[in-house]
Amino acid sequence: MSNLDISPQLSQHGGRAAVSATPVRELLPGREVPLGGSTVVRRLLPTLGRRMVGAWCFIDHYGPDDIAEQPGMQVPPHPHMGLQTVSWLLDGEVLHRDSLGSRQALRPGTLGLMTAGHAIAHSEQSPAEHAPALHGAQLWVALPDASRAVDPAWEFHERLPVLDDGGLRATLIMGEMAGVASPGTAYTPLVGADLVLAAGTRTRLPLEPDFEYAVLTTSGVAEVDGVELTPGSLLYLGCGRPDLALRAGTASRMLLLGGEPFAEKIVMWWNFVARTGEEIAQARADWMAPSGTGTGRFGTVPGYDGGPIPAPALPPTPLKPRGRVR
Ligand code: MN
Q: What's the half-sphere exposure (Cβ side, CA atoms, 13 Å) at 293?
């Protein structure tokens, strides 16, 4: 997934100032962003109300869309650095290709985890012949300073562990919950779980009190700590919770995202996570260097039929770091 804003702004995220040490219930509306092809996404993070939840720094929820007569998702090759992308499908299929030579069809229940590290490029598209439905989420995880320059890597996990507790079925996408852990490589303590609630379910989900959490509904309506939650909004829950009350009148599905508050300040622009505006400008220049004249830092995506996405223009004022950057 690429941030397709035409004039993205440099923005500073992270640090503990925005973290609630105690339980809160902040309902934060997302905004609709056209992604390319026929796909419009709900961007739930970052928004004006919140920029990170643990190391999670980007949440796009798309669909369910009927793409029977549409191209579906068509995101040409674009670069990433300093983050991991987590691809999670609820319905349909997306074909991932990257500059490591990976080519992988992603389907519901499988985890596509791409660690950008210092540089990677990838494309994501609905196959030419595809199922009529497309529904999923694309999530980014910021890498901590000690790991943000690691070599790029692609992981595909076909089966993920599931906690089954009567009316609640929780699939561990990333991290650990109640002693059950995802095989996906994580660089900070965090959790990402897909929650399926059967109609009439009332339950409490065990949480880690030191983590901050947020929940979004991907289908149906659920009551989360007493707040009615429908697709299109993010409910920020803060830290300090030993568990979370969930209630579903009708069948519903959610994503629970949480983690240790991300203490480092980061700079986000377009598809990059860095620590300074200079690093962002260098990454942009490396991506835009004509093929054969640049460092080849991001590589090319073999097999993709079409050109890459050009980087947008940098805003005229470089980001002045504020506060403590570590
Ligand atoms: Mn992407």
A: 4
Mean pLDDT, rounded, for 18-34: 94
| Domain segments of the chain as ranges | 11-259
* Cα 219 from Cα 245, distance rounded (Å): 18
Position 292 scores a pLDDT of 55
Residues 39-79: pLDDT tens digits? 789 999 999 889 999 999 999 999 999 999 998 999 999 99
* 121 Cα to the center of ligand 1, angstroms: 8
Residues 89-107, mean pLDDT to the nearest whole number: 97
Dmax (CA) of the chain: 61
Give CA–CA dist 139/276, Å, rounded.
22
In angstroms, what is the span from residue 246 Cα to ligand 1's centroid?
Answer: 32
The rounded distance, in Å, linking the Cα atoms of 312 and 323 is 27
**Nearest 5°: phi and psi at 187?**
-110, -5
- 300 CA distance to ligand 1 middle (Å): 14
Question: Residue 122, Cβ neighbours under 10 Å: how many?
Answer: 30
Q: How far is the CA of 81 from the centre of ligand 1 (A)?
A: 10
Ligand 1 center to 223 CA (angstroms): 32
Fold of 11-259: Jelly Rolls (2.60.120)
Compute the distance from residue 251 Cα to the ligand 1 centre, in Å. 31
- Least confident range from 56-60, 198-202, 322-326: namely 322-326
Question: Can you state the percent helix, strand and coil of the chain, rounding each to 5?
Answer: 5, 50, 45
